[in-house]
Amino acid sequence: MPKILPKLFNTFAVLALLLSLLLVKNTQAISIPETKLQQTLAEHRGQVVYLDFWASWCGPCRKSFPWMNEMQQKYRDQGFVIISVNLDADKTLATEFLLDNPANFLVIYDPEGDIAQQFNIQGMPSSLLIDKQGNVQQAHTGFFTNKVKLYETQLMALLAVK
C-alpha cells in the first residue's frame, strides 16, 4: 500500500498544476484590455456609449472629466454609459490623475495602446459616441468647453432613438 501513495500524490500534483495553469490562462484573458472592452460593450448593448480615450499628461482630459461625470449622472437612467480607456504606460500616473480628477465611470487600462490602435485614435482626448446598436455615430478629437452643448445634443439625439 505505501507504493500507491507516491503515485497518488504525483497524480494530484499534476492535476493541481494543470488546474492552476488553466486558471492563470483564463485570468490573463480576462485582464487583456481589448477583451475587457469587448465584454463591457456587449454588456451595454442597447445603451448609448461614450468611449473616451485619455492619458494623465493630457491637459484637455482634465477638463473633460467633470463634464463626463456630469453626463454620466444626468443620463445614466436613460441608458447612457461612459467607458474610458487610459493609455498611460505607467498605471501609477493614471492613478495619480484619478486622485485629482475622479471618474464616476469605468476606466480600462490599455498601457500598450492596443485598443487605441483598433479605433485609430490620433489625439488626446478622443471620444466616440456609440449608438444602441453598437455603431460609432460621432468621433471627437480633443475636448473643447465651448462645444459641450454640441456633445450633449449629440448624445441626447442618440438616447431619443428607440
General description of the model:
This protein has 162 residues and is an alpha/beta fold. The chain is 52% helix and 18% strand. Helix 3 (59-75) links the parallel strand 1 (48-54) and strand 2. The protein is globular and about 40 Å long. The protein starts with a helix and ends with a helix. Mean pLDDT is 84; it is low at 4-30.
In short:
The chain is α/β, with parallel strands linked by helices. It has helices spanning 4-31, 33-43, 59-75, 91-100, 114-118, 148-160, and strands at residues 48-54, 80-86, 106-109, 126-130, 136-141. Residues 4-30 have low confidence and may be disordered.
SSE map:
Elements: H1 4-31, H2 33-43, E1 48-54, H3 59-75, E2 80-86, H4 91-100, E3 106-109, H5 114-118, E4 126-130, E5 136-141, H6 148-160
Parallel strand pairs: 1-2, 2-3
Antiparallel strand pairs: 1-4, 4-5
Order of secondary-structure elements: HHEHEHEHEEH
What integer is the average pLDDT? Answer: 84
By helix and strand content, what is the structural category? alpha/beta
Poorly predicted ranges: 4-30
Main beta sheet strand tally, sense and closure: 5 strands, mixed
Number of helices: 6
Give the strand content: 15-25%
Radius of gyration equals: 21 Å
N- and C-termini, Cα separation: 71 Å
Q: What level of helicity do the residues show? A: 40-55%
Q: In order across it, which strands form the biggest sheet?
A: 3-2-1-4-5
Number of strands: 5
What is the 3D shape?
Answer: globular
